[in-house]
Each structure stands twice: as C-alpha cells, then as structure tokens.
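Hello K.,

You asked for the raw outputs rather than the summary table, so here they are, unedited. I folded two proteins back to back in the same session to keep the settings identical. This is the first:
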Amino acid sequence: MRRILLSAVLLLASCGTVAAQTPAKPTPARAPEPPLRRWFEFQQFVLSTRYRFISNSADVTTSNHMQYREQIRFRFNVDAKKRYTLNAGVFTGTQYIASWNNLGPGTGDFDGKSHYMRQLYVSATPVTGLEGQIGSLFVSRGEQTEYSSYDDDGWVAGGRVSVRRPKSFYFDELSLTRGVVASTTTPNLWKRWDDLDDLNYTQVLAAKRFTPVVAASMDYTKHGKTDTLRAAMSLRFKAGSPLSALRWEQYARFSEPDAAGFVVTAERPVTKWVRLQGGYATVDERYGGLNADRIQRGRRVFAIANVPIHGPLSASVFATHALDADYTISNKTRFDAVLAWDVLNSLRSTGKF
C-alpha cells in the first residue's frame, strides 16, 4: 500500500511538472481600431446594379431595365466609447419603398440625380443598455422582415427609446418609437421635417432570444388610424441540418378593414457557396403598400439565391409569382438579378477604415 501511495504521489508530481512546463496558449491580441474610427466610421457602404423585370396582373410588362443603387450608412462619434453619435443614411431612389435609380438600358431614362439623405439622427447611450435616438430613423422590426412590416428603405421621423438589459427586464430589447411616417414620395429628409408637426406613428416592440436556435419578437404599431399587431419567430439550426433557418411572420390589423396575413421563409445552403431561400407570403389587399416592393400585396411564392463571387463581390437572384386575385397586383411576376460590391469590406481591408 505504501508503494502504491508513493507511486501516485510521484505521478501527480510529474503531471504537475509537465503542466507547469507546458504554458497555456496566449489569447490573440485584438487588433487596435484604425485611428479614424475613433471619430468616423462607415456602417454600410454597398454599390449594386441589377436587371429587373416586372409584369402586373394584366400581363403588362411595367419594368424591363437595368438599375443601380448606393447604400451608405455612417456615423460620427462624439466620445471615445461611442455612446454619443450622429448617424446618417444616404441612398438612391425616389420613394419610401425604393432605393434604386434607372441606369438607362431598358424602360425608363437614366436617373443620376436621385441621391438623398434619408436618415439623420442623434443617438445617446447614457448608461449601458439604455439608448435614445431622435431624428429621421430606420424602422425597428425585431425578427420581422420588410416582407410583412415596413420596407428596408423606409424611415420614421421622430424619437425612440430602447432598453437592452435582459438581466433586469427579461427581454433582450424593449423599445418605444413615436414619430411620423409620411411624405412617402419624398425621401429627402430636408424636405419633410415639417411632417413632425403631425405625428402619426407609435410602435412598442419586445424581442427575445430564448436559445441559440429560437428568437422571437412582437410589436404593436399604430399608424394613422390603423392598429396592427405583428409577431415573428426565427429558428437558426446547426450546420448539417436539412434547413439552416426557418422564419414565421404574422400580422393582424384590428382597424377597419381588419385583416391578417403571414410570411414563411426557409433557408438552406445548396452548395458550399450558394444559399437558397424560398417562401410563401399572403398580404391583404389593403395592407398599405409600405412593405417590401418585392412583395407588396397578394398571395405569392418567392425564391432567393445568394452567391458570393470573390471577396467583396456577390450576386443574388430573386423571383416571385403571385396567385390570381380579384384585385390588381402591380408585381404579379418579378425577377431581379443583382450584382453587389461591398465597398466597406474593401475599405476595411486597407486597415485605415
């Protein structure tokens, strides 16, 4: 027994010696931010071009042309911790639901003038997890998408308070937005500040990530005389699963005329590089026309393929077809082929941005 105990002590000692002689791998040092980012930073900078074909429910071709788009978001940082910032968004396009200009080939003339600052707002985070914003803001949607909410290119002029302190309030995000959604054919914010004289938009939103797989959100929105309740749940699966993501979006309008609709979207990689999305949407006839221009209203199927090309270059293809309805559908059949250059990716690779 004494020999066994002695052997055990020697073994433990040798293990300790080996452990002491094998230093832990140091954690890689995080690369310092470029000096410019202390004061100014791009959050998005994408240039795109696309071919677009649209025919309506009367089988009349309304678009068959090339277009181009710029999407630029940036901010100025007042303090080193970036708690107080001035944020801006500059886009092409002439409407709330459109951020593309005609390039020339095909229907429509070249548009080189429609470049507007749509968003400009001040953001303040006085304490961790509490943020206030005021100005022309981006729409807050939680897990909802532009398909059943407001278009990605849209805006809300007004103010927003967001709380992101899940340990104290359970939800990952709670937000209240009060403002105005109007002048939908005037993207230039300098020409629509007067809209703030007549506030018509209130939104209360709650979002929660329950697990690494499940996330959900719900919001109540009052826009003018319309009351709408929206909810969405997204599932993000592990690599190797038949689907990589599944999303369900639902809305119900309680003001006259009351109605409801939903969107379901599934996603999976079909090759190492190509990611495919497909889904079904049903949006009622009187929804309002401020959701995604690719979807709008009606019952439809849609599909999207995203293909990285090289570095900051990528391509995507979108196709949709609406089922027959007893009302006019402006985009019964639509096809988009998009080529995008992520300029921000290129800028950051230089180490200066």
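The second followed immediately with the same parameters:
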Amino acid sequence: MKKHLFILVLLLASVGYTTAQGKTGSTPKYVFFFIGDGMGMNQVNGTETYLAAREGRIGIKPLCFANFPNTAFATTFSSSHGITDSAAGGSALANGHKTYNSCIGLLPDSITAVSSVAVWAKEAGAAVGITTSVSVDHATPAAFYAHRKNRNMYYEIGQDMCRSGFDFFAGSDFLKPERPGEPSLYQQVQDAGYTIARGYQDYRTKARKADRMLMLQTQEASKNDRSAIPYAIDRKKGDMTLTEITRAAIDFLKKKNPDRFFLMVEGGKIDWAGHNNDAATVYEEVIDMDNAVQVAFDFYRKHPDQTLIVVTADHETGGLGLGNRGYTQQLDLLQYQKMSAPLYSEHVSQLAKQYGDSLTWEIIKDDLKENFSFWDKVQVGEQQEKQLRKAYDDILAGREKSQKTLYAQISDLSYLAKSILNMNARLGWTSGSHTNGYVPVFAIGAGAEQFHGRIDNTDIPKIIAKVAGYR
C-alpha cells in the first residue's frame, strides 16, 4: 500500500511539474527567441551577483530567464574564425549554418542564400516579428531576413527588410536610409505596406489600422543617435525601451495571427558596453533585456502549453572575468556609476565648454564623486588620482586624448573612471572585442526540454523549427 501511495505521489508531482513548465512534446504556437548580443556566461552570472551585492549580500539574485528549467551551453565559432563576429554568429542562430565573419544569410561561398527560422515560421503560417535595441539593419536582426556578403551593406539590407514580408519590425532606426538617386528606405518600407510608428505611444495610435508595422524611436531621438536606443543606465523619460518593443510586438503579432507567431528580440547593447569594458553598463543592459523577457514570460504563464521561450547569445564580448585578485568582490560599487562611459565622455566635454579656462581640478573631482562616488564609496589610490589628474590637465591644455572602441570614442578621463571602478569591483577584461567562450542557452515551455547539454549555435534554430513544426 505504501509503495502504491509513493508511486501516486510521484505521478502527481510529475503532472504538477509538467503543467507548470508546459507539456513535454507539445507543439508551441508562440515562439520567443531572445538574443543577448555579447552575453556570455559571466555577463549573466555577474549580473545576478551584482543584483545580490546591491542588496548587501554574497550570492545571486536570479534573473527571470536564468531561472528557466532547461539549459544548455553553445559553441560559437564561425566558418572563417575561431572567434565569430555578430554577422556570422547571428546567421548561425538564424539559419543553422556556419558562415564567414561579416557575412549575412549566405553560405561561405558568398552566393548561396539560406533561409532563416523566421522565414520557415512565415512559410508555416505564423506571424513574424524581428526586433532589436539597435538599428533594424544591424547584423543580428539582419541575419533573419537579409542575404549580403558584408554586414555593412546597410542600404541593401534595408531593401531586403522591405522584401521580407514579415509583419513587425522594431529598432532605433535605419543606419543609412538614403542613397543618391534612389528612394529612401522609409519610402520603400511604406510602399511595401508597412506603417511607420515613431515611439511606443505612436505605435499604440497607429497599430489598429496597420497591416504591417515598423516601430522606430522618435525622430528627435534619431537626430541624437540613430544607431541604437539609449543604454538603460542613460535612459530618460520618453526614450523607447526594449520592454516597450517586446510588448508592442506581442500585441501586434497576436492581432495579426491569434494562433501562431514567431518573435526575435535582440538586446544589442550588451555587446556595445562589453566592447567598452564598461561593466556597470553591461549589467544594466542584461537587466534591461531580462525585463523584456519578463513580458514574454507573463505571456507564457497565460499560455504555458502553447509557448516556447529561448534565450541565448551570439558570442561573448570582452572576456569578462569575475575577479581580478584575491577572493573578494565588491560588485555593489558598480551601482554608483550614473552613466555609461560614452555618455560620461560627452558630459565632460560639455563641462569643458561650459567652464573653459575656469575648469578646475576640484570641479572634475566633485563631478567624479557625483557620477562614480570616487573618494566616497569608491577608493581612489594615489597613482589612480595622478592618472585622472593628468587626463584633466590634457583637457585644460586642449590636448584631450581618447580611446576608440568598436562603437564609441571614449575620453581618457571617462575610460580611466570606469576602469578604476571595475578594478575596485574586482572585475577584469581580457579583450575589447569578442571571445570564443561558451554562451548560455535558457529555455522554458513547449519543446524546451530539447535544449540540454553542449550544443552548437547552429543547432538552436533547427531545434526551434523542429519543435514548432516549421520544418
């Protein structure tokens, strides 16, 4: 009798677990594919450790997606390099084939076009959305709809977007919307049947009557920076967010096809901050993407047996190390950084223009205290202060120097400030570029159990297509 009761309890527990996680073997109607560009293992672990440190404790505070019950880790090398770029990495995640660095949606022969999981979904009758926190023609989103030899062919990539027939796009803007003698990409988008919305509120106004939608940030925001929406750490009221993008995409796709959709969401600026070796900004970007995942997770909880959410990355950026000496960390110190390294560079330039020859070292010290908590919460050594003082002297003498990263030009003062903060937080970086570290894969919902163990990035779209019945 006891044996039978024990078996019954196990069966009931199994049923409860299956109900909570989505039925094993069921086919998802709604597929979410989140890509944290540059988000390696330590970007995830570091963010969770940082969140716990902000609460004054050692340990982790789990992110929503890191709590997903099915996990794997993926290799990311390209066909041409041991370390992939975002074009080859994005293409592998989109179409399941290796290609060479800088290539979008083509095999290594530079001729043969390969379709993406988004195309397979569209052919299977699903509504399709491709979204990002950077420009809609950037490497990762482009990998899902474009076929070009080089990721920098932005105008041509924009034309491929117009021809895709997908239902919803969102991002900051186009990088190169104009070409002499040819219609602008905005005109081509509208000719292809897309309604252009500028910001989330404009989307809400226009969505009901739109057949297809391109959601961009406001024109004012694009005048300031068309390449991406602002970093989460720099965000101001009215800035478009990845959470809003995700919410709008779900709303539109569900209206377009209540029975089936596929949505890719890229957190693109985790990578950008990684190129800058800017840890505080990296962690805030991971948190920001997790907030977008939470929107999808809320949808999943309403449709647990019909939804699949997969979260991964195209590569790791920066070679982030969680420790630089000894056995202690002080990641809580990162909370005192008030703006990204690129924005702080702009801020210091404005100070120099405002004060001119009256810019004193005390003004700079007070500013560093306000924006990094230097000489207050964050210790600054004698040698470090000398380096900061030299950077100030160069500004005053009109010979300000800067460090060039892939997506930013960062003044020496700003570069030193975030480096000193990283050092005090006990973090290290090995590169200003990508690395070949494994990237994590997290999944929940119908078919999520297929993600386990070590896989290659090319396996991910194939698994999604298989469990969703696209192929």
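Confidence is low (pLDDT under 50) at residues 1-20.

Happy to rerun anything if the numbers look odd on your end.

Regards,
P.
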